[in-house]
Amino acid sequence: MSNGLVLIASYPKSGNTWTRLVLTRLGGRPEQAFSINRLEGHWQGIARRRLFDDYSPVNAGDLTPAEIELFLPDINRRLAAEVPDPAFVKVHDCARRTEQCGWHYPPDSVRVVIYLTRHPYDVAVSTAHHFGTTPDEAVEIMGDDGVARESSGKLQPSMPQWVGSWSANVISWLDGPYPLALMRYEDVHADPVSAFQELAAAAGLAVGVDEVRRVVDATRFELLQQEEEKQGFRERPKTSTRFFRAGRPGAWKGMLDDSLQARLAREHGAVMERLGYSDDGEAVAIPNGKERPIRGPQSPRN
Q1: What is the pTM of this model?
Q2: Residue 301 lies inside a defined structural domain of this protein
Q3: Inside any domain, residue 231
Q4: Rounded mean pLDDT of the chain?
Q5: Do 110 and 2 touch, CB atoms closer than 8 A?
C-alpha cells in the first residue's frame, strides 16, 4: 500500500492552484518544460469522471451520488498505488466517509493533507468572479452544505462534489484523521518562500531555500496572468473571464457590502475565530496556538 497521496485540499478560491504550481515544479525534473496547463493533481470535473470510470467496475453515469460514494475509497487506494510518490491531488470536497467503506481518501493512502484557508470575505468576491455571479449569490453558495454538481437521471460529464459550506469544509479537514499541514493564504502571500519551504517539507520534498525562492519567483502572479492570457488555462470555468484575477488578500474591499460582511461573520464566525480571521477582514494571529501549522493524524471518527 502506497501512502504517497499529498492532498492539497481547500474550499474553492483559497490558493489551491498556486500551491500545486509551486509544489509540482519543486517535485518535477529540471529538464521538464513547465506550464500552468501541465499541472498535476487535477482530478476534477470531467477528469474525475474519467478516473472513476477507469478504476470502477461500473460507469458513473449508471449510479446515484450516494452509490458513487461507495466506490471512492477503493478508487483512491488504487490511485495511491499507481501514481508516482508523492502525488499531488487537488481536493475541494469535504473530508467524508461512508458507513460501509470508510473515508473517501483512506488515511493509509495519504501522506499528508495540505489544507489551505483564505478569509471568507475574499473567498466570496473571488467566487463571484469565478462563477460569473453576484457577491450575494456567492455568499449564499458559501453557506450551502449541499452537493455541488449533483447527478440526475441523465448522463453527466462531471462528477458530484461534496464541497459543503465554507465552515463545514474547513472543519472536516481540520478535525479529520489525517496528518495535516495547515496554511493560510494570507501567510503564504506575506512570506511565500518560508511558507512553501514548510509545505514542501510536509510533502516529503527535499528542497533548499534557494530552489524554493527560484520557483516562487517563476510563479509570480503577474507571470501566471500573462501565461493564461497567451495560452489559456484548462481549469478556468466558462463562467469566468480570467482565472488568475487578483491574488492578493483584501481584494474584497469595496466589493463586499456591510450586510454581506455581517452575514459571513454571523454564519461562519466560529470557524473564522478559530483561524484568526477577524470580522473586519483581517488575518490576525491564530488565538492561543489553537491550530498548529503541522500536526499528526487524528483518531478516526465513527
Answers
A1: 0.85
A2: no
A3: yes
A4: 81
A5: no
